[in-house]
Amino acid sequence: MTGWLQVAVLVLALGLVHRPLGDWMARVYTSGEHWRVERLTYRLVGVDADAEQRWPTYLRSILAFSLVGVLLLYSLQRLQALLPLDNGMASVEPSSAWNTAVSFVTNTNWQGYAGESTMGHLVQMAGLAVQNFVSAAVGLAVLVALVRGFVRRGTDRLGNAWVDITRSVVRLLLPLAVLATVVLVLGGVVQNLRSGGDVTTLAGGSQFIPGGPVASQEAIKELGTNGGGFYNANSAHPFEGPTAWVSLFQVFLMLVIPFSLPRTFGRMVGDRKQGLAILGVMGLLAGISLALISSFQAGALPEGQEVRFGGPLSSLFAASTTLTSTGAINTQHDSLTPLGGMVTLFNMMLGEVAPGGVGSGLYGMLVLAVVAVFVAGLMVGRTPEYLGKKLGRREMTLASLYILTTPAIVLIGTAVAIAVPAGQAGMLNSGPHGLSEVLYAFTSAGNNNGSAFAGLSANTPFYNTALGLAMVLGRFVPIVLVVALAGKLAAQGKVPVTSGTLPTHRPLFAGLLTAVVLVVVGLTYFPVLALGPLAEGLS
Amino acid sequence: MTTPVLDRAPAPETAKPTIAWAPAFAGAVRKLDPRGLVRQPVVFTVWVGSVFSTVLAVLHPSVFGWSIAVWLWLTVLFANVAEAVAEGRGKAQAASLRKAKTTAVAVREDGREVPAADLRPGDRVVVVAGQVIPGDGDVVEGIASVDESAITGESAPVIRESGGDRCAVTGGTTVLSDRIVVVITSKPGETFVDRMIALVEGASRQKTPNEVALDILLSSLTIVFLLAVVTLAPVAAWSGAGQSTTVLIALVVCLIPTTIGALLSAIGIAGMDRLVQRNVLAMSGRAVEAAGDVGTLLLDKTGTITLGNRQAARFVPVGGASAEEVSQAAVLASLADETPEGRSVVVLGGGAVDRPAGAAFVEFTAQTRMSGVDLPGGRQLRKGAAGAVQAWVRGLSGAVAPETGSRVADISEAGGTPLLLAEKGPDGARVLGVIELKDVVKPGMRDRFDELRRMGIRTVMITGDNEATARAIAAEAGVDDVLAEATPEDKLALIAKEQEGGRLVAMTGDGTNDAPALAQADVGVAMNTGTSAAKEAGNMVDLDSDPTKLIEIVAIGKQLLITRGSLTTFSIANDLAKYFAILPAMFAPVFPGLDALNVMRLHSPESAILSAVIFNALIIVALVPLALKGVRYRPGTASALLSRNLLVYGVGGVVLPFIGIKAIDLLVSLIPGIS
User: CA A128 to CA A76: how far, in whole Å?
Assistant: First the structure.
């Protein structure tokens, strides 16, 4: 009963917020005015904010920005001991520093390390928290470029990446994060700059109580679908998730931007129904996933679950964190039933599109829509077009490579890890469950989710390097393809909509798109799922 | 002329050509050469799998291993059969065309004989009755009747004359009468017939843009599934469920989109072939594809929307004459008038009556601008242009009813042509009434335009008439827009404007002044009766010279794309069932729980895998007729088409293989040696 109520409250809240937020985001990316603080930023960085970029320049800006992010974050960790606010932590070891730097820049937030015993406040605040904001902003910028590709006609300009990133942070993520922080602090999440200290407990023992800027970190961790916890236990730690409603609020934060973006998309393309159709597909997939995970978890042993708040909230949290590319956890996914765990895996395997990460979820879904339109469009007797754009050889090459990329990373990574001794060494379990753990790690990294199945000693040079590669490729190869696609689309004219045009705003198309997501993307993983969670769950 | 095109599936009259399987199989075997197969990535992947599985079967012989190898080869073979069958149809046509190219010598204007193969553009040759025209060209001197049946299949001869829009002649056709001088316009080996032969044989076939895009998607799916299976090998081995290479190859072949991969080129060839069967030659597959995308149709009024001639539509009595009187007089006056207009007056007046004995018919001349009849007893009837008839009546001191002028003006304004009917009787001469001649819209055109509108296609009527007349006819026919008093420049501008807005434009044309517009249009259909310039500029030629066919061409283009999309959907949807057949077969022996996925309750792992492979191969052959004929196409909105095709080919594609694989499994389990 409580479970139903929680879902109802969540859906209601998302329903209420997605319109104003979606509309606001559309305004953010279409407005011609710069805020004063933004002007200042542009002047400091030396960017002409009114100059629009062609797609290669837009892409270079995004990639360069991310590269600088990786280098900075890597240096901060490696030099931690020499810098202030290190809270007595040593400098981070190279493979772990590389893994963490990449992890936060790619919006994955896979954590091979334990937060409270590795990172001091400086790294947490100036490194990780900053990337929590800007990596989400990068996702949004890429999305906006793609949407502009659909909207614009006959131009080689996609907008200005620096402006899109800056505005995402200044007008969207920062205000929302401040708001969310206040709510979280009110809900009892810790927020201070202390390094913690020993206290004497009621029973007379001594316990170390860590402190830190947790609530502010927590807010952007969920909002930006990042997922990197301040503590190793992530949202299961009572300082990160003190009460049931705070936990629910965190779920809301993860979902709110991804579920509002279809509205933004609809607004920007000038047809809100197009956004609604996409929202419908995301909602449907998310609903199916939640239903499945809840039914698989019903009556399961509470071991590893968030026992304070009950099973349903654990399922809801697990579904939401894997459906968005957040990866925060309040439950150890390793302890879910095999089939429940398979659902979290499958959620990520869909490519993080229902609703997916901030920005990345929608651009992934739009690429899948391109594939769906291509096949279905032919069935109405026209060469396919989506939102007035013809899907020809160039467009399909990019879309095809996109759907090829993540499965390739995940499957090759898993196969290599399982075949080489260095990979096998990290596996704590044998049999199907051991396979699930490795598969989960590469699925999570390749899809930039960041949650872990545990049961895998991933803080080894092999996994740090391999998963780091999976994260980089899983993030930036799709980004290259999407921005290129945006460029090709923007250069086209626009085909007028007639009754002979494939309608892409009706339930029929939404159903078709759902089927394409499940069949084209999902089926790829069927064999390996059969050997992992299915073999375990059906035995 | 009025072939109701859209209310039936295209090609019923020719849709039943039997499939020549035997020569197709021979051709398919020849096509096993991998150098040719590389062009089809999916089929090539199967070919590689066949080679591997054969080697494995030789090294580790077993009934299962050999069965898989054989069926994989059959899969490749069936894919080739599809293409060979499609090509085979063109071969017959090409053979008959080759017969047309039999002239060896040409006679120059100066009387010298030269080999026909040496003719260059600009050469002038003389062709007289009984001779074959040695190359494509334009008549510059004389007039002749020409038998073009070798190309068009139409046995009635056509007139070709110098100057004007009927000057083009085609090499290989025969002059039946008179003598003409022809200036050659084609290079040797590149004549119209040469190009036709290449086209129908598919020799010059290039992949069309959409085909290329689909190929890319299919290749990418092939790579994804290849990766899924290749990476499965170490994972399965680690899990203690290691698989033989043969099984893994079988899995790859079943998962990659072999069905559409095998049928893709056959669908393209068959689409061109459907046009050829309708006597339309597309110079490129690109044009056929573009036809499906057409957003605007430019249709000439005369001959396409209206019947070629104006017809009597109404009798308007004036000056107190009765309707009966007018009607009878009109019929009598037109009895000898053999023009279409004259015959239509008789029809409107109730049909022909016996010619009154002693009646003298007056022929129409350019001077009098009247025709009619002088009946015994002095009664004279005249019909003709308003001015001429009024002058005739006044000349006989007769009465012109005062309302005559306004009636005539009304009809003119409404787009019709008024003819006056007058008589000279015992009481003097008088105007009896007005005959209204109108352009008659072909029956069924309005329905067809409604249908086109539902398909999202705009129709624009092109006419030389004035705006008012054009609007009136347009309203009656139900076209969306008109271009009145159209000059070639206007047409060109209209096409450019439509294209600017993102619409693809199709049009027909025959005159030299149509050439720029034909070249500009996305689908330009030149009439075979037209000039060489027009034929050169268009990307299709209609050998029947029937402009109505444009609508049919659009339907064929759409059908081609729908067939491609439907079979792709079907092919991908098939994968689900194959997974349920093969995965439990592979892994259930080690993980018994996975037997729950064996929903078809297949006999054994080996029979399950073999059944999936066999189904995968047989479905190709089963779909060859559909690929050649094209899926059923009913014009309608995109939504209606999508829901129907999704239901049939999407849902059907999910369900059918479950049934098919189960049925095959029942048979396969009987094979001795299959566990």
Answer: 10
